[in-house]
Amino acid sequence: MTIDGPDRRRRQPPVAAGVLMALAAAAFVVASVIHFGADIPIGFTTVSDSFSGAATPEAVIAAVVAIGATAVLTRRTRSRGVALGTTSFALLGTAYGLTVTLNSTRTGDVAYHLGILTTLLIILGLLLAPGRPDARATRDDVRSSS
User: Fold this and answer.
1) Distance from C-alpha of 119 to C-alpha of 24, rounded to nearest angstrom
2) Torsion angle, CA of 126/130/132/138, rounded to 10 degrees?
3) Residue 48, pLDDT above cutoff 70
4) For the chain, what percent of residues have pLDDT higher than 70?
5) Phi and psi at residue 36, in whole multiples of 5°?
6) Torsion of CA 55, 60, 61, 64, to 10 degrees
7) Within the chain, what is the greatest distance between any pair of CA atoms?
8) For 58-113, how does the pLDDT look when each residue is reduced to its tens digit (9 = 90+)?
9) Are residues 94 and 113 in contact, defined by beta-carbon separation less than 8 angstroms?
10) Radius of gyration of the chain (CA)
């Protein structure tokens, strides 16, 4: 039996998508904090890149992606739709950010944008890939056919 139409929406996204979304949200938080002017020592160097124009959008994207990650990891109803929406929002915002940084000397920012875009595309692939039905939906289908 194939799952099409409304039943397709009942399928839960893979936990791996939620974990990657949580990591992406954390990466956006770190980028935002750095762009707000915080210096972060890492080993023998310090990451410092005050750029207030990017700090607020990154904080907003972090919050939106965190909502999607929470929906996936708590196995909420319609979590796939929420995750698709939040990931799409992050993809659009990050793609715009890349267009801003490409014409600058901010090679670290360009590398960050390319890395987070790759991560978001992987998340999108996980969300769009066919998965197994939600166990609750399967139990309800079995009960209704009895």
Assistant:
1) 7
2) 130
3) yes
4) 82
5) -75, -10
6) 160
7) 66
8) 999 999 999 999 999 999 889 999 999 999 999 999 999 999 889 888 888 899 99
9) yes
10) 18
